[in-house]
TrEMBL record:
Lineage of source species: Bacteria, Bacillati, Bacillota, Clostridia, Eubacteriales
Pfam short name (any one): BPL_LplA_LipB
CDD domains assigned to the protein according to its UniProt record, in alphabetical order: BPL
Stored PROSITE patterns: BPL_LPL_CATALYTIC (PS51733)
Domain of life, per lineage: Bacteria
Descriptive protein name: biotin--[biotin carboxyl-carrier protein] ligase
Amino acid sequence: MNEEFIREEQGWIGQDITVLETVGSTNQLLRERLTRENVPPGAAILAFEQTQGRGRSGRNWLSPRGQGLYASVVLYPPRIQHGGILSLLAAVALTDAIREVTGLSAGLKWPNDGILDGKKYSGILVEAGTTPILWAIVGMGINVRGRFGADQFPHAITLEEAGAKNMSLESLWQSIAHHLEARYERWLVEGNLSVIEAWRSYTVTLGKTVVAQGSLGTVTGMAEDVDEQGRLLIRQASGLIPVSSGEVSIRASDGSYA
Ligand code: BTN
């Protein structure tokens, strides 16, 4: 990837960009940079490989060299409560970009998993803190090239496997940065509903029976909607249960959950 090319084409997201051959985790490196210096909003780190890629819920994110896009961007949201909505916002922007660049009908599983052919091709990890000022790092991992063995990774897919051709990491990044910037600026003006409406239009979760495993335990029921904070609302006999974080599995027609 050519840093100059990327920078010239960029708005404020990705204007300050570091492209590395290999790194432990782009999220971690950006976090370390925040503790050392003033980092402009939209500063990004991209890597061709991560040796300690981090996923949600303490999992690893497999990040083999040249096979994926691994990127982190720093934002300074107005309030700390915005972590949840930012995670949906980033997922919507990523889906905008994937649809634009590949023409594939990419969808979203709550909260922010990118889905193609019922399998996960991308994930987002938002980490936030308050020192030295309120910050949020949006980390995005996209499985671009190569193949996942169906035996070992039955629920994962790459863009290539889903039918995307001649993927260029540069154009993918350009499109993500552009859409992230546009969605973020719109959100600052219009608020959460602009994000929620777009998320609803992309999701494959709503209307399905799901199992949500979160910090407060397991909730099973119909995924009815998301509220203005981006919480998933699951219908149970007792009423709607809001789930603010965790993993969701969707019930398939054969009764299995994935
Ligand atoms: C998930 O578990 O679905 C989230 C995966 C997020 C992976 C990305 S890759 C770039 C950034 N750096 C990391 O260490 N993780 C995120």
